[in-house]
Automatic annotation (TrEMBL):
A GO cellular component annotation in the UniProt record: nuclear outer membrane
The name this protein goes by in its record: Inositol 1,4,5-trisphosphate receptor-interacting protein
Highest classification ranks of the organism: Eukaryota, Metazoa, Chordata, Craniata, Vertebrata
Predominant cellular place of this UniProt entry's protein: membrane
Summary of the function given for this chain in its UniProt record: Enhances Ca(2+)-mediated inhibition of inositol 1,4,5-triphosphate receptor (ITPR) Ca(2+) release.
Mab-21-like HhH/H2TH-like domain location: 434-503
UniProt topology in membrane: Single-pass type I membrane protein
Family: Belongs to the ITPRIP family.
Coiled coil: 77-107
A Pfam family annotated for this UniProt entry: Mab-21_C
């Protein structure tokens, strides 16, 4: 009697028809039931057959370098279908024979056969899994090798990590003698600029028509002078002046993070400012469109609420045929207003005032009779809703009409507050500002040798803030000056190599919540500050070359600009 699923061989022994399905191909092999030697031989044969089938049916298991993968796939699939069809026919024939034999003779399958079958099946499964894992590791290894080859090709050589930096004592002496600004001079400069700016803006308000012109608010100090890391002379103060439209108008905003925005990728980090009438509902009333005369009154709107319709988009400094605020229009208005304001108060001051740059409306140069010169920027901005974010007018000339209505957004006030926070929470003699000043000084000197670079002081400041947010306060002690300076240089080198330097406040969850960054920007995708450089390939290459030269020349530059350079240059291992 035979067991279901078994057949009788020509020698009279019962043989169970086992089967293995791999991909879409079904393989069968005989399994002995009675004698141990035959069971062992069958198991070994099963494992070998299984491995061979895996190799034949896995085209990527042992890939050939010059094989054409699509052609091999098609050939293997065709062959597998033919084998599958043949095996299905053979299986049907054997099942019919086994059913007939089972009716004639019934005998239970031996228990030790089941154990043998389970053992060799498990060995086969483990073998196949090991081959599969090895294959994936082999392919991943190849991918990593090719990836590492590409990284080696793009690598800058880790110049920042290998460069020789002076020890902390030399760096501290260099900073104090060549970079540090006198505290007395620093505060006197800020006090004069802020006082004069207040007088100038007060005179500007008096010359403007409050019913038709933009209204300016008090100025706000931003930038390196107010973050206490200004490098070199002449010292330059940056002031921003928020302004608002006359009643009944107001600003609304469209930026790259707005839902459903249509801001082009080129203008990420920018927004448009739309001027809308806050009393648009009144325009539908007859009193808002016609003159009712003195003997007629509107029962819905009083005379005090009467809609002002004399302002046009040109009066409101909008781009032509749009309701979007134009930077060029604002530039002209602000320059004219500053000029009128100065003419009104010039007799009170014993110095001359001129515009320092034709491209910026508020770049002002003050020249005293003694010959001393003070330069500062006073730039009109629009406050974003009720936050400390502002849309900044750079007034760059452009042939593209669209660029005139896109305003870069600045978070300088938040950054100033972040610096104040670190000043209170870091060690009293922390080295974070010294590190930033040294890097800014070296980069400025290198640019004077090799030409302008796309890397700005804002990129340097962003790098420092990223490191301040990721390191413990104790790591910024003064005796860590050399290590932290190297960290900044390595961070910048890696950013240039990876072509990514993200804005420190946008999409960065490491920023403390008490800073109150608007949620729409806090949860936005990170903003790559190097993207403008990448769009100009030549500028990016120039920037990389300049930075690498700065790294190589840093020890020489420090020695050249330091009057008394002590011994003790050390290499950080």
């Amino acid at each position: 009697m035979t067991h279901p699923g078994s057949v009788v061989s020509t020698s009279g022994r019962r043989i169970l028809t086992g089967q293995v399905r791999l991909s879409k191909t079904v393989f069968r092999f005989p399994t002995p039931l009675q004698r141990e030697p035959e069971t062992m031989q069958g198991g070994i044969f099963q494992v070998c057959f299984f491995v061979t089938a895996a190799i034949l049916n896995r085209p990527f298991l042992f890939p050939k370098e010059n094989a054409t993968i699509p052609e091999r796939d098609e050939e293997i699939i065709t062959r597998m279908k033919e084998h599958e069809k043949a095996y299905e026919m053979e299986r049907a024939r054997l099942e019919q024979e086994a059913a007939k034999m089972n009716q004639a003779e019934e005998k239970p399958v031996v228990e030790d056969f089941n154990q043998s079958w389970d053992f060799w099946s498990a060995v086969s499964l483990v073998t196949f899994l090991m081959i599969e894992i090895w294959r994936q590791d082999f392919q991943d290894g190849n991918n990593q090798d090719s990836s590492s080859e590409e990284e080696d090709y793009l690598s800058f050589g880790n110049v920042a990590k290998k460069m020789i930096l002076p020890d902390k004592g030399v760096l501290a002496s260099f900073h104090d003698s060549c970079i540090g600004v006198s505290g007395t001079e620093f505060w006197r400069m800020r006090e004069f600029v802020e006082s004069f700016a207040d007088d100038l803006l007060e005179a500007l308000r008096s010359t403007c028509n409050r019913d038709a012109d933009m209204e300016v608010e008090d100025c706000i100090g931003i930038g390196s002078m107010y973050e206490n890391w200004k490098v070199g002379k002449p010292m330059l103060c940056d002031l921003i002046v928020p302004f608002t439209p006359p009643e009944p108008y107001r600003f609304t905003f469209e930026h790259w993070c707005s839902p459903g925005n249509d801001v082009p990728p080129t203008w990420q980090g920018c927004g448009r400012i739309k001027i809308v009438n806050a009393n648009e509902d009144k325009l539908d009333c007859l009193c808002g469109r016609t003159n009712l005369g003195e003997d007629m009154l509107c029962l819905l709107h009083s005379k005090a609420e009467k809609v002002k319709t004399k302002n046009t988009t040109d009066d409101l400094l909008c781009s032509k045929d749009t309701t979007y605020l134009a930077k060029d229009q604002v530039m002209k208005w602000f320059q004219i207003s500053i000029t009128k304001a100065w003419n009104q108060i010039s007799h009170k001051h014993k110095f001359d005032l001129t515009f320092h740059s034709l491209d910026s409306p508020g770049a002002i140069k003050v020249k005293f009779q003694s010959g001393k010169v003070i330069v500062f920027n006073i730039t009109p901005v629009v406050q974003y809703e009720d936050t400390d974010a502002y849309l900044l007018s750079h007034f760059e000339s452009s042939n593209n009409n669209l660029s005139d209505i896109y305003w870069p957004m600045t978070f300088a006030v938040y950054e100033k507050n972040l610096f104040k926070f670190f000043a209170k929470n870091l060690p009293s003699n922390s080295c974070h500002l010294s590190c930033l000043q040294i890097v800014a000084f070296l980069h400025k000197k290198q640019c004077s040798l090799t030409g302008k670079s796309g890397l700005t002081s804002y990129h340097l400041k962003t790098t420092l803030l990223h490191l301040l947010l990721s390191k413990l306060p104790a790591e910024w002690h003064s005796d860590q000056l050399q290590k932290r300076l190297r960290d900044i240089l390595m961070f910048l080198e890696k950013s240039l190599q990876e072509k990514k330097l993200y804005h420190v406040l946008i999409g960065n969850h490491k920023v403390p919540k008490w800073l109150n960054i608007p949620t729409v920007f806090r949860e936005a995708e990170p903003l790559n500050l190097l993207r403008p450089l990448l769009l100009k390939g030549d500028l990016y290459v120039k920037t990389v070359d300049t930075f690498q030269e700065m790294l190589k020349n840093a020890p020489v530059l420090i020695q050249e600009y330091m009057p008394h350079f002590p011994n003790g240059i050390t290499h950080l291992q």
